[in-house]
Automatic annotation (TrEMBL):
<feature type="transmembrane region" description="Helical">
    <location>
        <begin position="233"/>
        <end position="252"/>
    </location>
</feature>
<protein>
    <submittedName>
        <fullName>Putative integral membrane protein</fullName>
    </submittedName>
</protein>
<keyword id="KW-0812">Transmembrane</keyword>
<dbReference type="GO" id="GO:0005886">
    <property type="term" value="C:plasma membrane"/>
</dbReference>
<keyword id="KW-0472">Membrane</keyword>
<feature type="transmembrane region" description="Helical">
    <location>
        <begin position="194"/>
        <end position="227"/>
    </location>
</feature>
<dbReference type="Pfam" id="PF01594">
    <property type="entry name" value="AI-2E_transport"/>
</dbReference>
<feature type="transmembrane region" description="Helical">
    <location>
        <begin position="259"/>
        <end position="286"/>
    </location>
</feature>
<feature type="transmembrane region" description="Helical">
    <location>
        <begin position="292"/>
        <end position="320"/>
    </location>
</feature>
<dbReference type="InterPro" id="IPR002549">
    <property type="entry name" value="AI-2E-like"/>
</dbReference>
<feature type="transmembrane region" description="Helical">
    <location>
        <begin position="27"/>
        <end position="44"/>
    </location>
</feature>
<feature type="transmembrane region" description="Helical">
    <location>
        <begin position="134"/>
        <end position="159"/>
    </location>
</feature>
<feature type="transmembrane region" description="Helical">
    <location>
        <begin position="56"/>
        <end position="78"/>
    </location>
</feature>
<keyword id="KW-0813">Transport</keyword>
<keyword id="KW-1003">Cell membrane</keyword>
<comment type="similarity">
    <text>Belongs to the autoinducer-2 exporter (AI-2E) (TC 2.A.86) family.</text>
</comment>
<feature type="region of interest" description="Disordered">
    <location>
        <begin position="336"/>
        <end position="371"/>
    </location>
</feature>
Length: 371
């Protein structure tokens, strides 16, 4: 029975990942909203416990999320903008050093000048391609903003109608009501522990990268720390963006050598160490084996891309926990049945014994029969 249950859960996870790949534009805002709502639900509960109306508590939590996201974006943009001139100057210095290196290797000054002219002529084409990519990026940004607005709208109603949605989820699950309620409570705990694991990884990356930036004399340490910490919550893409951000600031402040050292540290922190530690961190936080974490992440990345990578570990943890809960419920029901059968047999045995005692206590007639 347990083997068939595990097979069904595994097939369900694969089907779910396929559906996520097909309906990703609609499901990602919903899933993000659900995750945010689960994480900040204790805050809304505390506000409600202090006699604040539930809609007001939900609106205040949504406002806090919106303000936090806006402040993070402003800090990142201002921090990078303050280094743009330094980055341009560092690129000019890097090009001059490259020309000097070419001369040291035996290239004539005219050839080095021709190389620079070729690069200058190719620059407009590169800029055109970048602008076309920027247009696509703007479209993606608009889609992101719309998705975030939809997600914030969903967060509000998930926080406002938590009890109603919990009851609907319990009715939807193909398990008894008491098991469904326990499954929902445990699922919320799993999601919170998953984000706790992500926070631990983000802290590790932030400490390593900010420490290296401090040693190399890179400015804007607060901005780098914020970019690295927030980027760790988005697998791969977040690490790439925050790493590029950090390397650009290092290039603008210390030149090419500083940028190369910073790039090495970023690759080490966001690549090797994170991939080595993530299975153990998530395995400990979600109580699943690190090898399972690694395998489901790779499989989900192949089947559903970035969305699969983001959702593979928590979905697997939820499925395994539900399987354990169902197995526990079946064992409890089996024990209850055995206990009832034993009690029934004991009652029947005691009843037969009492009946026999009553027959022995009855007076005997002269004919030898009991009355």
């Amino acid at each position: 029975m347990a083997g068939w249950l595990f097979t069904g859960l595994a097939l369900g996870v694969v089907v779910l990942l396929f559906v996520l790949q097909v309906l990703r534009p609609l499901l990602l805002p919903l899933l993000l909203a659900a995750a945010i709502a689960v994480v900040i639900a204790p805050l809304a509960d505390r506000l409600t416990a202090r006699r604040m109306p539930r809609p007001a508590a939900a609106a205040l939590c949504c406002l806090a999320v919106l303000v936090t996201a806006a402040l993070c974006g402003v800090v990142l943009v201002v921090g990078l903008r303050g280094q743009l001139q330094s980055i341009g100057a560092a690129l000019d210095v890097a090009w001059a050093r490259a020309e000097q290196l070419a001369r040291d290797l035996g290239m004539a000054a005219e050839q080095a000048g021709d190389l620079r002219q070729t690069f200058s002529e190719a620059l407009p084409t590169l800029v055109t391609q970048l602008l076309s990519g920027l247009a696509g990026g703007v479209a993606a940004l608009v889609e992101l903003v719309v998705g975030l607005a939809l997600g914030l709208y969903l967060v509000f109603f998930m926080l406002k109608d938590t009890g109603l949605m919990t009851s609907a989820t319990v009715r939807f699950l193909p398990v008894p009501a008491d098991v469904g309620r326990e499954a929902v409570v445990r699922a919320a705990g799993i999601i919170r522990r998953y984000f706790l694991g992500m926070t631990l990884i983000a802290l590790m990356n932030t400490v390593l990268i900010v420490g290296a930036a401090l040693i190399l004399g890179v400015p804007a340490l607060g901005v780098i720390a914020l970019a690295t910490f927030l980027g760790a919550y988005i697998p791969y893409a977040g690490a790439f963006v925050s790493g590029a951000f950090t390397v650009l600031i290092a290039l603008g402040s210390g030149g090419v050598s500083t940028a190369l050292w910073m790039l090495l540290v970023v690759l080490l922190a966001n690549g090797t160490l994170q991939n080595l530690l993530a299975p153990f961190v998530f395995g400990a936080a979600l109580r699943i084996h690190p090898m399972v974490v690694l395998l489901v992440t790779v499989l989900a990345g192949i089947l559903a891309g970035l969305a699969g990578v983001m959702l593979a570990v928590p979905v697997t943890a939820l499925a395994l926990d539900l399987a354990r809960l169902i197995k526990k419920h079946d064992l409890r029901e089996r024990d209850d049945h055995h206990r009832l059968d034993d009690q029934r047999h004991d009652d029947q045995r005691h009843g037969d014994q009492r009946h026999g005692d009553q027959r022995q206590d009855e007076p005997v007639t002269p004919e030898g029969r009991t009355r």
